[in-house]
Amino acid sequence: MTGMTAIASAGVQPATYRATGKLVALAFCGLALLAALAVDLSTGPSGMPLDTLLPALLAGPHGADRMAATILWQLRMPEAAMAALVGACLGLSGLQMQTILDNPLASPFTLGFSAAAGFGAAVAILFELSLPLPAIYAIPVAAFAMTLLAAGIIYLIARVTGASPEVLVLAGIAVLFFFQSLQSFLQYMASPEALQQIVFWLFGSLQKSTWSAVFTVALILAVTLPFIIRDCWQLTALRLGEDNAASLGVKTWALRRRTFVLTALLTAAAVSFTGTIGFIGLIAPHAARAVVGEDHRFALPMSALAGAAMLAGASAFGKAVSPGGVIPVGIVTAVIGVPLLFAILVLARKGRPA
Amino acid sequence: MSLEIRNMNVMRGGTRTLCDVSLSLSGGQVTAVAGPNGAGKSTFLAALAGLLPHDGTVLWNGAPLDRRALAYMPQNTDVRSALTVLEVMLLGRLDRLGVRVGQDDVADALALLARFGLAGLSGRTMPTLSGGQRQLVMLSQRLMRRPQVLIMDEPTSALDIRHQMEALGHVKPMPVTAARRCSSPCMTSILRHDSVASCCSSHTAVSRRPGRMQMC
User: Fold this and answer.
1) Do residues B4 and B24 touch, judged by C-beta distance below 8 A?
2) For a Cys-Cys bond, which of A88, A113, A235, B130 suits A267, CB 3.0-4.6 Å?
3) Which residues contact A251 (CB under 8 A, 6 or more apart)?
4) Longest C-alpha distance within chain B, in Å?
């Protein structure tokens, strides 16, 4: 009887009611991101209590307290901003990939993008001296180019064979193994010093963040956002399945193609400055769908916010655990992320009506 | 009101699966498409819906059929993702959906669900419904488009006899007042000549040889 009344009352104004709930969830996730960023900014080798942090934040990069200003604005802020941006990029591209490939396993890892970026970085590290650019630019540029190359290869294979989601996933995994082997070969050939550098890059770390890197990632995110927003409903329609979406007028192949280009750009931007942090791209979308459902108007921003909050949190955790030497954030994300993913899967199962 | 199909040919994988189909269907009636397996029924319906490349012309009231005026329900409509029933209904009006969802669209969706006896299910996710309920939701989603031409490929395969009769009763031509501008289906194509579907239809297009189709 109570069940019947619950259904009846839910039927009165479900759309407005549910949208409010989803907006509240988005706001909560935004607050979680802010909290994670605050903790991230206040932790570090020298520490910084909140009562120093706030004045230094408000005073800006040219504040009177020179030491606090330098630590905050030159050292910690780029890392924190990078964590939020990279997390958002990975969350967005992960959700888009899972939608266009109709596959809950899809992520920047699965499609070989991360492996390609790693190979690009390894090439740049190994041939550092013969490159025209200094390493700080050469590594991200090479990683970015290699990620786009991997995307191009997958795209070509899909184009030739008819672009079914299965073929895209298969091509992605093949590309993953291909670039991983190339990268292993380079590691095998490398000198011990270069090898150490390559391995450290592959861990994925925010410590190489600079303001120019932050602005580059922010720019790419800003350029792709309007296109992502425009396709929100089309992507939601794709969740109906291929035949249904096509019968409603969605040009599924064109939609897949443009979304694929966007995800390649976002992933390339995210991984080329930080290294292999792919796990966020797998679990942020699952978290987002578990909380706000399949409607991409809410799931996309939620996935971006969740990814940003997770990476900022992981960064703070990595610094807090070993105040002296920072644990690379790529290691922390997987260690924290796996229990989190299990928790999400269990909660999502419970929340589903029988 | 009439739907004219002239000299429709469909090539699939190098073979001609539909051969010079010419049919004339008058508006406001239900037409069943019948024929043995592999006769090209689904191909004909998908081509009519504009989803398969074909030659020949399809005219609605003398003008080329506008895709916005038709709704097509393919054979396989199963939804595996956790979309809610209301979201699925709203997607029926994909062209109109913006950042905000119009309250009239929501009201129409709820009214249609109520007509199919699905009123209490609007907040449920698709995988939690029974196969028959899912099929009814997908059928109502097509009616959200207020189609002038409704094309359905085995729309009632998962329904029990009573629900088949009911569902097809809803899509049968009805006075415009009763239709409440929610739907005015003028042609319904249904597969399976041996089912309840053909009892509800007034006309049948039959394909006796593969690729050929004629009225009877």
Assistant:
1) yes
2) A113
3) none
4) 50
Which tokens hold the place of B48?
A: 């009519």
Q: Report the alpha-carbon distance of residue A164 to residue A121 in Å, rounded.
A: 31
Rounded Cα distance, A279 and B115, in Å: 46
Among B79, B148, B82, B88, smallest CA distance to B112 is for B88
Question: Which residue among B51, B86, B99 places its CB closest to the CB of A14?
Answer: B86
Q: Which residues contact A72 (CB under 8 A, 6 or more apart)?
A: A41, A48, A53, A56, A57
Strand order of the sheet with strand B54-60?
B15-26, B2-12, B54-60, B63-64
How far apart, in whole angstroms, are the C-alpha atoms of residue A90 and residue A272? 12
Tell me the sheet residues that pair with B4: B24, B59
d(CA A203, CA A28): 30
CB contact set of B134 (below 8 Å; sequence gap of 6+): B77, B78, B79, B126, B158
CA distances from A224 to A197, A217, A228, A230, A265 (A): 32, 11, 6, 10, 8
Among A261, A149, A134, which Cα is nearest to A210's?
A: A134
- Residues in A whose CB is inside 8 Å of some CB of B read 7-8, 10-11, 14-16, 18-19, 229, 232-234, 236-237, 239-241, 243-244, 246-250, 289, 293-295, 297, 352-354
Round to whole Å and give the CA distance between A8 and B21.
Answer: 49
pLDDT in tens, chain B (216 residues): 777 888 888 887 777 777 788 888 776 667 777 777 777 778 888 888 888 888 888 888 788 888 777 888 888 888 888 899 999 999 988 888 887 888 888 888 998 888 888 888 888 889 888 888 888 899 889 888 888 788 888 777 777 777 777 776 666 543 322 222 323 334 444 433 344 444 445 556 666 566 666 665
- Tokens standing for B104? 């009239």
Asked if this assembly's ipTM is beyond 0.90, the reply is: no
CA-CA distance, B40 to B33, in Å (whole number)? 10
User: B77 to each of A210, A245, B37, B138, how far by Cα in Å?
Assistant: 50, 10, 20, 7
Q: Is some CB atom of chain A closer than 8 A to the CB atom of B99?
A: yes
Q: Is B49 helix (H, G, I), strand (E, B) or coil?
A: coil
User: CB distance A240–B83 less than 8 Å?
Assistant: yes
Residue A167 CB neighbour total at 10 angstroms: 17
Does A239 sit within 8 Å of B79, measured CB to CB?
yes
The tokens for A349 are 């199962």
Name the β-bridge partners of B188: B30, B150
Q: Check: CB of residue B38 under 8 Å from CB of residue B208.
A: no
